């Protein structure tokens, strides 16, 4: 157990009576003067005699007057026995959770979110732990302070040369950042951005244009919490970071309104359009890469690493699922699982069955595919998109978040003055650099993919499957390191040790 800002402590308690085989343990916090919260990992019970150890996973805050009832950690299938104590417990737990975790529409046309207007409305178990919150907020403050100092000492306004941007390009330049050159080419992003209203920042009208890249291919080249438990480590901190993003980044008056040409409002419109293109296939690399013509291209490093990760995650998911679901009929007959699937597609993703998302699982294979998609998206896909942001956006001329003049219509009119006058101001530049460095740094308490410490499943088999997953990831790590040694510009974003287990930033 660990208390807020206190180290972890272990407690032992001897029980003189023989209680027989245990099904549940109940946990309540003794109240002293202050109602401080404790985070309990798990309770294990040993004996009597040669009885095997029984584990009761918790991984929750214990606070207030409530009593937590923790079932033994062996995954169980739904039974038809309504007298079954585990089934009764699960039904009660689901009812409680439906009260705590409610859907809300943040903006029409976007996926639904948790009903939480602010961070304080989030369930405590979904919040950043204290150290994570302090690290996160301190990084923001440190960035703002550094910006203020640079503003005072090196005031570079007005910009004259592209090199002026180096003054705000602090920290170590990465191998990629600063080497990037955008080229004009017809691009589907044009349609996505067409008629998105442009922002006004500090009284100055802004302009936006699609970011363009041209790539060239070289010739050489009912009672079954187990599934949801399988996913819990991959959702750590996600509600907290997403609530922060909705309230501080893309909200009215948020960071996008302050520095980006779309503002928060335009960005929501972009999301709305992107949502209509969000298909189930687009979230699954074997389908997505095929649809985008990226299979079998040696230099498509993302494609290669994403496919390998997909296979490794799929093997892990299948290993766990097959331990508990012994046939397709068991999947079809699990009401909780089926309700979960339908709710994601019909409610959370706003009737996404038209875009290929399932409304039921008919087989173990279909279930495994969906779970693999969930874990891949929350870990590898997020890493691939998120971690390159500093490389891509920190050197502002490569990817300006805003333009202060409309794009030129002919080459002859473009002078260095028009380029510098179009690029973002010192203030916008600083905010872009702070934001991208904040989200691209590995957080101090990062948990790499497959290395969560929580043990939700009792028994040796799930542990063996997890160990195999870790071994597969290790092998891929070695392959990627060896491959990268041969490259001028290594592709690191999908190196397993750098992939976070959940969307936590
Ligand atoms: Fe993120």
From TrEMBL:
Task: Please list the residues that bind Fe cation.
Answer: 382, 505
Q: Name one GO molecular function term.
A: oxidoreductase activity, acting on single donors with incorporation of molecular oxygen, incorporation of two atoms of oxygen
Q: Superkingdom, according to UniProt?
A: Eukaryota
List, for all copies, the residue spans of the domain called PLAT: 1-76
Respond yes or no to whether keyword Calcium is given for this record: yes
Q: List residue numbers at the site (Essential for stabilizing binding to COTL1).
A: 61
Query: Pathway it acts in?
Result: Lipid metabolism
Coiled-coil annotated spans: none
- What SMART domains would the database entry show? LH2
UniProt keywords, alphabetically: Calcium, Cytoplasm, Dioxygenase, Iron, Lipid metabolism, Metal-binding, Oxidoreductase
| Cofactor(s) demanded | Fe cation
Q: Which Gene Ontology terms of cellular component type are present? A: cytoplasm
Give the primary localization class: cytoplasm
PANTHER family for the chain = LIPOXYGENASE
Q: What family name appears in the similarity comment? A: Belongs to the lipoxygenase family.
Q: In its UniProt entry, what is this protein called?
A: Arachidonate 12-lipoxygenase, 12S-type
